Amino acid sequence: MAEHGAHITTAAVVDDQPSIFEVVAQDSLMTAVRPALQHVVKVLAESNPAHYGFFWRWFDEIFTLLDLLLQQHYLSKTSASFSENFYGLKRIVTGDTHNFQRLASAGLPKKQLWKSIMFLVLLPYLKVKLEKLVSSLREEDEYSIHPPSSRWKQFYRAFLAAYPFVNMAWEGWFLVQQLRYILGKAQHHSPLLSLAGVRLGRLTAQDIQALEHKPAEASMMQKSARSVTEKIKSTLKKAMGGIALSLSTGLSVGVFFLQFLEWWYSSENQETIKSLTALPTPPPPVHLDYNSDSPLLPKMKTVCPLCRKTRA
């Protein structure tokens, strides 16, 4: 597939550990997809609230459910999240020499898989809900909805005062981990990977070959299922896989489109854009190409050259 080789460099490397630019790029991928989809849903909901208002009201839950299906599919099929697989990366179980040579097509072990899903899907959902709660409490505090002496107001004022420091400590934890990763002092650029018991590595040629042959093997296994239970399980897995594949294809196209828009509107390409989109310079007026004795101009200066009537 194209995404397996789109971001893999051709330079030979001794270590399979990706660079800081690769890991930061894959981290920012899903971060950019969420607000883009949210804006699309908002526009649809404003244009037709009766049909699309539901998706706007429950956007966080719907997005989390779709993200769960997508990430579970990729983690179990490619040992990587969608963004990691897009950049040619995989998750390798740490502290286990038996799983070090594990191919990406084998998927993550169940323990690391569910930990990864929790940090990839559940944690961002809780963070979004917490930010919305903080925003709502700040609005209540500004308009003084609760009495000044109420315990609830004292509690959420203390919460609002402590939240910036907690958030700063959280972001600082990630920043320190990235600095340690750049200096070669850590195997993980994110503490969440360490908590999940995995690290990131590049896809090898064997991994890519195994991923390309896996769909054919899966279809052969589905044909061999004969019992009713196995057929039901196979049908459900096929349906879930189809949904995840549709999401993957749509996101892949959307990501390429977002990258194109980012390049198109970047400051470095403004001169190129102007040269491509600017209208040609209009030619000079036709009457300037003729001399004063041109037949297009009236002989008498008292006659208007436009309406051909005598000036008053």
UniProtKB/TrEMBL annotation:
Bilayer topology: Multi-pass membrane protein
Annotated compartments: Peroxisome membrane
Keyword Transmembrane: yes
GO CC, any one term: peroxisomal importomer complex
Gene Ontology biological process terms in this record: protein import into peroxisome matrix; protein monoubiquitination
Keyword Plastid: no
Role summary: Component of a retrotranslocation channel required for peroxisome organization by mediating export of the PEX5 receptor from peroxisomes to the cytosol, thereby promoting PEX5 recycling. The retrotranslocation channel is composed of PEX2, PEX10 and PEX12; each subunit contributing transmembrane segments that coassemble into an open channel that specifically allows the passage of PEX5 through the peroxisomal membrane. PEX12 also regulates PEX5 recycling by activating the E3 ubiquitin-protein ligase activity of PEX10.
Subunit-structure text: Component of the PEX2-PEX10-PEX12 retrotranslocation channel, composed of PEX2, PEX10 and PEX12. Interacts with PEX19 via its cytoplasmic domain.
PANTHER family (alphabetical): PEROXISOME ASSEMBLY PROTEIN 12 (PTHR12888:SF0), PEROXISOME ASSEMBLY PROTEIN 12 PEROXIN-12 (PTHR12888)
Protein name from the UniProt record: Peroxisome assembly protein 12
Species assigned in the record: Molossus molossus
